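Continuing the batch. This is chain 6 of the set; chains 1 through 5 are on the previous pages. Same settings as before, nothing changed between runs. Recording input and output for traceability.
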Amino acid sequence: MSDDAPDSLIPYDEIVQEALRAVVGRVLGQVETTGGTLPGNHHFYITFKTEAPGVSIPSHLKERFPDEMTIVLQNKFWDLTVGEDGFSVGLTFNQIPAKLDVPFSAITAFVDPAVDFGLQFQALGAPDGPEPHEDAENDTPDGEAPAGTDDGSNVVTVDFGRKK
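Output for chain 6:
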C-alpha cells in the first residue's frame, strides 16, 4: 500500500469503532438480564471520557477525573441499565455511592482481565492517545489489586491512520 492512497469517502474507521462499541453494549446487556450477576470470574474495566457529551457523573468525580476515568464492574455495583446509546450503573467511590451515566461513544477502553480480552477506541472528537489517569479505586476489597494481570495480548486497537 502506498502513502499516497486516496482518502476514503466511506468512514470505515467510524463504522468499525461503532460496531466494536456495540460489543460492549451487548456484553453489558447480558449482565443486565441476569440481574447484574457476572458469570464466573468475569469482571470489566471500562474507561471513558468524563467530559464527553451525555456523560453524567457526580461533580466530585468530575473534579477528580477531569478528562478520563476507569471504573470496575466486579463485586459492588447495582442498578445496571443498558440502553441503545449507553449504560448507567451505581458504584461506590471511597464509600460514597454514585450513579454514572455513560454513552457508548464516550468509552475509550473495555477490558475483561478474566479472559484477557480488551478493546480500545478512539474517543470521538478527541485528540489521539489517552491521557494518563489514576487507577480505578472502586470495587477492590480492602484496596487490594485484582487477581491476575493483563498483558494486553488480546487488546484490539483500530486506527486507520486518519490524516490530521
